[in-house]
């Protein structure tokens, strides 16, 4: 997609995210997505999920448990394990914790209509520190727009930074960047080589067929 069109899409997506929340966007008589409100937060061992979402545009929804909800970003190109690659991460509406277990189809015409795969999941640790080396707690780091987390996933491990852009025409968007540690690997490209569900081993096509 040309950069300018992409920008328009981005601004549109952000505008929508601001106006309506998760429940307002969905008709739970039609979609099988969870309504939320039943799962307890686990601040000591927060979870993350990356859902591959074949909607109008294929993208990867990156979600982190922060403050009892899943803070969410849409990453069009998916995460990279190469520290020199920055991936655009467009903030989207908070999702309920239950959403981390959702794999299936969202009916056509519904918000986000298409197929959702649990591409990777696991727990994570907050590793963000201030200039003096003192830990900054997770909700605070989120508010500052500088998250540094250590993922314990199947496909993704190690440090990742999520940085909110504070100026320029991409202001308000975030960048997802692999931190340079033992788990960094410029030769890997899990988005193109590890394409199946981490929970069921299914491809997007399998899910679309089985969950109609
Ligand atoms: Mn999505």
Give keywords.
8-stranded antiparallel barrel, 33% strand, 17% helix, alpha+beta, 4 helices, binds manganese (II) ion, 212 residues
How would you describe what is shown here?
With 212 residues, this protein is α+β, with helices and mostly antiparallel strands. It has one domain. 17% of the residues lie in helices and 33% in strands. The chain has an eight-stranded antiparallel beta barrel with strand order 1-2-3-4-9-8-7-6. β5 and β6 (114-126) form a beta hairpin. The two termini are 29 Å apart.
Tell me the helix content. Answer: 10-25%
Low-pLDDT regions: none
Ends apart, CA distance between termini:
29 Å
Question: Overall 3D geometry?
Answer: globular
Q: What is the N-to-C succession of helices and strands?
A: HEEEEEEHEEEHH
Helices, by number, come to 4
Q: Care to count the β-strands?
A: 9
The count of domains is 1
**Biggest sheet details:** 8 strands, antiparallel, barrel
Unique bound compounds: manganese (II) ion
Average pLDDT, all residues: 91
Assign the structural class, choosing from mainly alpha, mainly beta, alpha/beta, alpha+beta, or little secondary structure. Answer: alpha+beta
Strand order of the largest sheet: 1-2-3-4-9-8-7-6
Beta-strand fraction estimate: 25-35%
Gyration radius over CA: 17 Å
